[in-house]
């Protein structure tokens, strides 16, 4: 496993993408790597398509991933996985939460939600891993922990020990949400290993 | 892999700037929220020993900071790029007065317009106002440059502009905390009319001082360690600054780079010497050809905007492709349903815009979450220029159209925006007597930038109780005789009131008041969601017309319709995602078929 990489988080504003990217960033830092992360706040957070770019390695300059250079994409929603296709390359690893959130044109009946849209990735030799993180989060008793389930799945692609993540969550997540998030993280790892 | 402790903090550019202001010993800081600058003041308000505030607008904020500087304390004003336009009046003359305590203006530009109405390049302000400007490339530099800015300000008797962009403000990186520094000036009242009273005789003298000061700063720029050359192989040379520097390093790690930490004034000798020692000189900068123009004016041959895009953000891929033609991207985008931002479920603006969409009027809009009322299905905004432009503009329309235009146009403006720049426009409507109607969308907070309190909220930046501006009393005091308050969740009543007020042949103000659903108290409030009673739904799509994220349309085939007990021609039915619903009830009010009910009434 190389000691550098580009991770693109994408999804819908309000899905907890910032927290997911924060837990991942802190864990990479704790493992001794340089990390840079870029987010967008403001208008984009109002239910729109959002991203966080995370880059790690010995020395990182640009906080932005260039098109064609995302090694791992964590997509919180199916359409959003495909929206960021230009950031992927052959062999990119894409984790897709298959839970659907209808964009306005679909919710108002003006367009339909495209079926089998992930074929667009698969036919370009992109490594797609589909999971219903909403379902997994429901099973641990907290649907809002979808983001941490995805961090758990992502962790199996990164060279960092489970304990590092757990320590980060113990330090960074408020006590009343801590246990359920750690459970969600472990459940994500378990499902990823299946 | 073992964890490594470095003693460094993990901060965004804005968090680092707040720390930098604290380490620089700033005593008074004032700003108006604006993406991507907002979190500087929010974070600074958590530090001890520094007074922070949200000002009504950026002009007030800068004048507060300038006043604090005049009595000898280090002060700070923060704003987004368009806020600098509002603050430009004090900015240009503060260049003449200079300072006593260090004064820094942090200006955050938004290339790509992630959350802005334009992408102006505010480096031009440094040139136009004759002020020095520093531009960091990451959070660590942001903090250090802010401290340097105070040192420069006091050393050269000048306000200093520190420019960031979205990819500095909202980028997170490792930052080392540093020593606290202190002002060389002591706080006291000093009368110095020749310096502070800018009437022509004094201003002419200060104009000469500015020329001398900029010459001294240009000399300083030649030896400023943050203007530095990183020698590479010498074939390609790049002159760059800010975030573009990181893109150049990523794309061309072996090239020679002149990194400018100070983008105005420029170190001409250093630039000339660098240019002579490289085969090919490129200027890499986002937005305007600012460095390029000034370097070309020195008579130096270089290439910039003929290769590098002048619109939008750059990234390493764009820089590399522009210089070498090599493209790192493999795949073109796939056509998908777009996902623009949307007003939240339960947003009070939605009810008002729905009511407005039925009035067949031109809606002169403004800047805030409510600008999203432009999007379908509401499609209820017909112009949006800058803060306050709707209120002033609707009066212009009334004067242009005369009686023909009566009842055909209306202005909408948010509570914070009204305080920022709408009040003077309303005074004009009354004074110069037009029939214009102004709707104040009062959701009790500055919502778009993340729920900052404003003068009408009743709390200050720290959440402490503060005077609550009363819009009804204010508007009456301005001379508006017709001031009506409505609840935008009651759509039918809102439609009726709007029609009456829009048709009224004299000035009127409608205050549409209901709290933003993202205010902490509202988030905590237990909300009973609504649900659809499917068998009653006729597929009329009235609720769908709200464009609420919690409501979606489920299409059905004729066979499915019959099987579900609908008429064969029914095309589908509405469904509510109860986990998203905030229980505002706007949809129930629109439903004529009893197909929407509160969850508790099941």
List the helices and strands and how they pair.
The complex is a heterodimer of chains A (194) and B (602).
Chain A: E1 5-12, H1 17-30, E2 34-39, E3 49-57, E4 70-75, H2 78-83, E5 88-97, H3 104-107, H4 119-122, E6 127-131, H5 133-139, H6 146-155, H7 162-172, H8 175-193
Parallel strand pairs in A: 1-4, 4-5, 5-6
Antiparallel strand pairs in A: 1-3, 2-3
Chain B: E1 9-12, H1 13-23, E2 28-31, H2 38-44, E3 51-54, H3 58-70, E4 75-80, H4 81-86, H5 88-97, E5 103-109, H6 123-129, E6 133-134, H7 139-156, E7 160-165, H8 166-169, E8 171-175, H9 193-196, H10 200-223, E9 227-230, E10 236-241, H11 242-251, E11 256-260, E12 262-264, H12 268-276, E13 280-284, H13 290-297, H14 316-324, H15 348-357, E14 362-364, H16 389-401, E15 409-414, H17 415-431, E16 437-442, H18 471-477, E17 482-486, H19 491-503, E18 508-513, H20 520-524, E19 530-532, E20 551-555, H21 558-563, E21 572-576, H22 586-590, E22 596-598
Parallel strand pairs in B: 2-3, 2-4, 4-5, 5-7, 6-7, 10-11, 10-13, 14-15, 15-16, 16-18, 17-18
Antiparallel strand pairs in B: 1-8, 6-12, 9-11, 19-22, 20-21
Number of helices of chain A: 8
How many strand elements of chain A? 6
Task: List segments of chain B where confidence is low: pLDDT < 50 over at least 5 consecutive residues.
Answer: none
Cα-atom radius of gyration of chain A: 16 Å
What best-fitting shape of chain A do the alpha-carbon axes yield?
A: globular
- What sequence of helices (H) and strands (E) makes up the elements of chain A? EHEEEHEHHEHHHH
Mean pLDDT of chain B: 96
Q: In the residues of chain A, how many domains can be counted?
A: 1
- Helix coverage percent of chain A: 25-40%
Assigned CATH class of chain A = Alpha Beta
Q: Superfamily at the CATH H level of chain A?
A: Pyruvate-ferredoxin oxidoreductase, PFOR, domain III
Structure in words:
The complex is a heterodimer of chains A (194) and B (602). Chain A has 194 residues and is α/β, with parallel strands linked by helices. Chain A has one domain: Pyruvate-ferredoxin oxidoreductase, PFOR, domain III (Pyruvate-ferredoxin Oxidoreductase, domain 3). Chain A contains eight helices and six strands, in the order E-H-E-E-E-H-E-H-H-E-H-H-H-H. A six-stranded mixed beta sheet of chain A has the order 2-3-1-4-5-6. In chain A, strand 4, helix 2 (78-83) and strand 5 (88-97) form a beta-alpha-beta unit. In chain A, helix 1 crosses helix 7 (162-172). Chain A is globular, with a radius of gyration of 16 Å. In chain A, 56% of the residues are buried. The mean pLDDT of chain A is 94. Chain B is α/β, with parallel strands linked by helices. Helix content of chain B is 36%, strand content 17%. Chain B has 22 helices and 22 strands. In chain B, the strands form six sheets. A seven-stranded mixed beta sheet of chain B has the order 3-2-4-5-7-6-12. A five-stranded parallel beta sheet of chain B has the order 14-15-16-18-17, with helices on both faces. In chain B, helix 3 (58-70) runs parallel beside helix 5 (88-97), helix 11 (242-251) crosses helix 14 (316-324) and helix 16 runs parallel beside helix 17 (415-431). The two termini of chain B are 55 Å apart. Classes of the chains: A alpha/beta (194), B alpha/beta (602). At the A-B interface, helix 1, strand 2, helix 2, strand 5 and helix 3 of A face strand 8, helix 11, helix 14 and strand 20 of B. Strand 2 of chain A pairs antiparallel with strand 8 of chain B, so a sheet runs across the interface.
